[in-house]
Structure formats: structure tokens, C-alpha cells
Design goal:
40% of the residues lie in helices and 8% in strands. By secondary structure, it is mainly alpha-helical. The chain has a two-stranded parallel ribbon with strand order 1-2.
Length: 155
């Protein structure tokens, strides 16, 4: 078994000192143990993603002398290396989880979840976690929500 490590910056701006430090230590460890260093871009925060940031980050890493064995610009066996490009793969596995009853659709809105957290906090209960309310929906309730085209999250 070989060492496989990754650095996964978010392309919301330039590479900052903390990111550079993390990349350097990860790269050094991979190289020390004849492993692989992977660059994988976490561009899932679409509101904050900045045009050109991926290229800026790669240029900065190269300036620091950090190279990678797999990444968005060179590919590799486990690509794509930009998270939003992996959406079809994630959807396939999410469907598999749903079909196998290993996951379920939660139709709760962010506002409903915030209200429940607030109620738990007022009662002195933990605000961490989710009450699995939608896991307990009947098939008819699930169908009604699905038919209404209400948004959902897979849990």
C-alpha cells in the first residue's frame, strides 16, 4: 500500500499562508514516503468561487516548488479533480444509497430546521443533530412531497 495524500483548496481567492503550509507539509510527507500528492479542487461553494482562482492557486503552488501527481490540469486515474465535475458520480451513488434504503430524502426547509434548533435550545436540549423527521414519513407523505416538487436533501 502506498501513501496517497491530497490538498483540496477552495477556489475562492488566492492561496493563503495557511493553505500553502498545509500543501507543503502534505507534499513533503508524500514525497518522503514515495507516495502520491493529489491536487483536488473543492469548488462546491459556488457563491464564493472566483473566476481564475484555480489557475492562481496552481501557479502559487508551482512557485513554491510543489508539484502534484494527479490534478485538474494533468488528470489521473481517479478524476475528475474538480468537485463540481464529479456531480454525476455523486448522484449515481446517492441514488444507490436511496434505492438500498441506506439514505432518505429530507424535505425540511432550512427555516424549519432552524426553528427546531431554536425550540431545542429553549428547552435546554442539544442543538446538534437532526431529529430524522423525514425518515419517518409514510410512503404517501413522501409521494405527496415529491409530487409537489419540494426540494430535498439526501440524508
Amino acid at each position: 500500500m502506498s501513501v496517497r495524500l491530497r490538498f483540496a483548496p477552495s477556489p475562492t481567492g488566492f492561496l493563503h499562508i495557511g493553505g500553502a503550509r498545509s500543501a507543503l507539509f502534505t507534499w513533503m510527507y508524500a514525497r518522503r514516503y514515495q507516495g502520491q500528492f493529489i491536487l483536488r479542487v473543492e469548488d462546491t461553494d459556488l457563491k464564493r468561487t472566483r473566476e481564475g482562482a484555480i489557475e492562481d492557486i496552481m501557479t502559487s503552488l508551482k512557485w513554491l516548488g510543489i508539484d502534484w501527481d494527479e490534478g485538474p490540469d494533468i488528470g489521473g486515474r481517479y478524476g475528475p479533480y474538480i468537485q463540481t465535475q464529479r456531480a454525476p458520480l455523486y448522484q449515481e451513488w446517492a441514488n444507490w444509497l436511496l434505492e438500498g434504503d441506506h439514505a432518505y430524502k429530507c424535505f425540511c426547509t432550512p427555516e424549519e430546521l432552524a426553528d427546531r434548533r431554536s425550540d431545542r435550545q429553549k428547552r435546554g436540549e442539544s442543538i446538534i443533530g437532526y431529529d430524522r423527521r423525514c425518515r419517518l414519513l409514510t410512503p404517501a407523505e413522501r409521494a405527496a412531497r415529491r409530487d409537489s416538487e419540494q426540494g430535498y436533501t439526501i440524508r
